Amino acid sequence: MTDDQLPSWTRPENQIRVGQPPRNRADAVRKLVWILPWLIFLGSPVRDLSSGDHGTAATVAGWVALATFTGLYLTLVFRNMGRPFSEPIVGALVFLLGALAVTLCLTLGGAWIGLFVYVSVTCGATLPQRAAYWAVGLNTLAMVLVGLDVGLDDWSLILVVLLLGFAMMGVKQLVRTTVELRKARATVAQLAANEERLRLARDLHDLLGHSLSLITLKSELAGRMLPDHPGKAAQQVADIEQVSRQALVDVRAAVSGYRRARLSDELAGAQVALNAADVTAEVPAEPGLDGVPEGSETALAWALREAVTNVVRHSGATRCTIELLRRQTLDGPVLELSVEDNGSGGSGKGPGNGLTGLTERLEKAGGTLEAGRTKHGFRLAARVPATTTAPVGSGP
């Protein structure tokens, strides 16, 4: 069911946004409607002023004081829904509200005792949690003392004042929690978007860096072969076409989020790329990956692609050895991929984008990365868990 098919009062644009300021006049009216029913406790003071039991001056002063009291109450509660006053101003206005309630009850009679309900609601809705506890208690005590002086008939109103104050404290806490949850949800959505961007950046870097390096090498080979060996040059051009088509497929899959790199495919691709770069390659046969989690295999496949790309593009190596070993460590069995060459390892002062992204990818799979110069060249070692780690205490 779409929003257009919902009843008008259930649509999102017509619902009251808890803990947020009004968006427009209609939203302000809806919030005000939720406040107005609480004005029922003003019925007794209104009847008292309309009865004619007080003199003209007292009646006029009573109407002015009642309007002031109501205005203060509505201002405090309504502003608290969106753009609340500062704490000192709120404290001063609440004190003024309580003083008006006490003064009106002592001067005009017990019919005005219901004003303490509004003071209690205001204390619970606008004051900080700890201050609200004391304010609601003191307001209830003030009502008891005033009630004893004016002869209160219905003492059950004390319970109403006390419970409404604490209830409003609970409502305020609920509103605060709702606002925090809304902010947390927005933060989670932002983090998810950032993570997706990082994934896409890593995938595109690894995919295009490897494929474009291979296309460049084969283009250079085709150029050198073209005058004397047109047949071999044509084969290189055909390989370029195949690599470019596969790169396009891989990019589309990476953008869609469905691509899973396989270690066997990357080993075969590494052999082709190293041979094209005139690098003597020692590549292991079909790897045994029984029991190895998919995440671990994918992480090693990306590590192999990045390592071979660096050997081809930056190292100037003439020999490269790739090893795939299972090792037993204190943390359990691991699968280690080692790529070692006799080149310079590049001229960069620190890890590039590829190694940084590769480190992040391996960490997500629970693995580690070591890369650095050796006596004879450059070595990259990636380690990932060789089995799925069971949570502690999950066994029989």
Separate helix tally: 11
- Helix and strand composition category: alpha+beta
Q: Taking Cα atoms only, what radius of gyration do you get, to the nearest Å?
A: 38 Å
Profile the largest sheet. 5 strands, mixed
Range of helix content:
55-70%
Strand runs, count? 5
Q: Give the low-confidence spans.
A: 1-19, 390-396
* Strand order in the largest sheet: 1-2-3-5-4
Strand content: 5-15%
The chain-level mean pLDDT equals 78
End-to-end Cα distance, whole Å, is: 47 Å
Shape: rod-shaped
SSE succession: HHHHHHHHHEHEEHEE
Short note summarizing the structure:
This protein is an alpha+beta fold.
Question: Secondary structure elements and their pairing?
Answer:
Blueprint: H1 25-35, H2 43-50, H3 56-80, H4 87-108, H5 115-126, H6 129-150, H7 156-225, H8 230-256, H9 263-276, E1 280-282, H10 294-315, E2 319-329, E3 332-341, H11 353-364, E4 368-373, E5 378-385
Parallel strand pairs: 1-2
Antiparallel strand pairs: 2-3, 3-5, 4-5
Helix pairs in contact: 2-3, 3-4, 3-5, 4-5, 4-6, 5-6, 5-7, 6-7, 7-8, 7-10, 7-11, 9-10, 10-11
Q: Could you characterize what this model shows?
A:
- Helix 4 (87-108) packs parallel to helix 6 (129-150), helix 5 runs parallel beside helix 7 and helix 9 (263-276) runs parallel beside helix 10.
- The chain is built from eleven helices and five strands.
- Residues 1-19 and 390-396 have low confidence and may be disordered.
- A five-stranded mixed sheet has the order 1-2-3-5-4, covered by helices on one side.
- The chain is of the alpha+beta class.
- Helices cover 62% and strands 10% of the residues.
- The protein has helices spanning 25-35, 43-50, 56-80, 87-108, 115-126, 129-150, 156-225, 230-256, 263-276, 294-315, 353-364; strands at residues 280-282, 319-329, 332-341, 368-373, 378-385.
- Strand 4 (368-373) and strand 5 form a beta hairpin.
